[in-house]
Design brief:
It is built from 17 helices and two strands. With 420 residues, the protein is mostly helical. Among the domains are: 119 residues, no CATH class; 82 residues, no CATH class. A two-stranded antiparallel ribbon has the order 1-2. β1 and β2 form a beta hairpin. Keywords: Coiled coil.
């Protein structure tokens, strides 16, 4: 159906956006555009200037469609106020959401002014007067159509001939649902990112604590290693000096005894090398036996045999074991909160290992250490060792507070060995 408004031809079968003329421009009237920036947040900053944060594309599409729908309605405050107030949250950023009431009051005043100046409003007020002043001219084509208004009110006719608003509302609801889905997906993504960040922070904190603990253990072990290396170097230096001194003293003593004792004949020498019915003995052993019977004032220094040198090595090894034992416990006493394994504890035996802990070995080790301690300090030394090897003290230093059967047996052997 085609209807003629004066000289214009309008096809009612065409969509609304192609033929309907808007009654007013809500975007311009309400001041949505912020200069060249376009549509931005309607809130004001503390300095009184307009906020420049842009509206998201999804919200802007929904707002534009809503304003397009309102542009075909009369700016009656009673009719459009509720529609406009629904759009306020979409036109304010998160910083100016509290200014909703201020913007609402401003819009109400603007709508009142527009409604007062609209010709359609004035036409409604003077409708009775205009009907009495109608002329007696013959009816035109548009007057003969009962569903049309007078030509003086084309806006009212266009408003009644609007296509179904249900289609526009359905489109708006679809956009709103789409916006809600996007917002929900974004919230889920943010929630997952927040959980991942918390998990990374937790693992980083645990790794940092583990690194600090390993660094402390490394510092303790490094200090122990340096102390043990220094003491071992001192022990090796003392052992080397002792061996050199004994070697230097051995040579002149052999020379003196060779001058005092005439050299035997070949037969006697052969007989002395292989005495009948007995094991062979070296000249050095005979010399040692002869020097052992001499007076202490006549002999210079006792020469050492292979057996005596081995005993000296054993003695020096015991001295090093004592020093290593005391050095390790000195470092451990300086760090009482350090947790160790069973094998890392210096045990009171020559090897320092738990596998060699027996009551007899502990007694030998403790007696050797007591010989180097003055008599007045031996009781304090024994008391300190008993406290050090109590089950409570050892349990405090172990990583695993649960003691095995072997560990309990070793501690009992140590307690019995210390009580010498």
């Amino acid at each position: 159906m085609v209807v003629t408004f004066s000289d214009k031809v309008v096809d009612h079968t065409m969509p609304l956006g192609l033929w309907a003329q808007p009654l007013w421009n809500p975007e311009r009237a309400l001041g949505l555009e912020n200069g060249q920036r376009g549509i931005t947040c309607l809130g004001n900053t503390k300095q009184g200037r307009r906020c420049c944060k842009p509206i998201s594309a999804t919200r802007l599409e929904m707002v534009s469609l809503k304003f397009r729908f309102l542009s075909h309605l009369d700016p009656n405050p009673v009719r459009v106020r509720a529609e406009l107030h629904e759009l306020l949250p979409s036109l304010l950023c998160h910083l100016h959401g509290t200014q909703k009431e201020q913007v609402s009051v401003t819009w109400d005043s603007i709508l009142d002014k527009i409604w007062e100046t609209m010709p359609a409003h004035q036409l409604d007020q003077n409708q009775s007067t205009e009907s009495s002043r109608q002329s007696t001219k013959p009816l035109t084509a548009w007057q003969q159509h009962g569903s049309l208004q007078t030509p003086s009110s084309p806006r009212r006719a266009a408003q009644r001939e609007l296509p179904s608003n249900q289609q526009l509302l359905a489109t708006m609801e679809e956009l709103a649902a789409k916006h809600r889905r996007k917002e929900s997906s974004l919230n889920d993504a943010l929630d997952q990112a927040y959980r991942r960040e918390k998990d990374v922070q937790r693992r980083l904190r645990l790794a940092t604590e583990e690194l600090e603990r390993l660094q402390q253990q490394n510092d303790v072990l490094t200090a122990q290693g340096k102390d043990m290396s220094a003491r071992l170097a001192e022990s090796e230096a003392a052992s080397g000096k002792l061996r050199r001194r004994l070697a230097e003293e051995k040579t002149p003593a052999l020379a003196v005894r060779s001058l005092q004792c005439p050299s035997p004949s070949p037969s006697v020498e052969e007989e002395s090398r292989h005495p009948p019915g007995s094991d062979s003995a070296s000249d050095e052993e005979k010399l040692v036996e002869s020097i052992a019977t001499d007076d202490e004032e006549d002999r210079a220094v006792q020469p050492l045999t292979s057996g005596s040198v081995s005993a000296m090595d054993v003695y020096l090894g015991q001295c090093r074991s004592f020093e290593t034992y005391q050095a390790k416990w000195k470092v451990l006493d300086a760090h009482p909160d350090t947790r160790l394994s069973q094998n890392a504890i210096p045990w009171p035996v020559s090897s320092g290992q738990m596998r060699d802990v027996y009551e007899s070995n502990v007694k030998v080790f403790i007696r050797g250490m007591l010989e180097a301690v003055p008599d007045k300090d031996q009781e304090a030394f024994s008391e300190r060792e008993r406290k050090r090897w109590s089950q409570e003290a050892i349990g405090h230093r172990l990583r695993d507070t649960r003691m095995s059967r072997g560990l309990r047996q070793a501690l009992r052997d140590v307690e019995r060995g210390i009580a010498v």
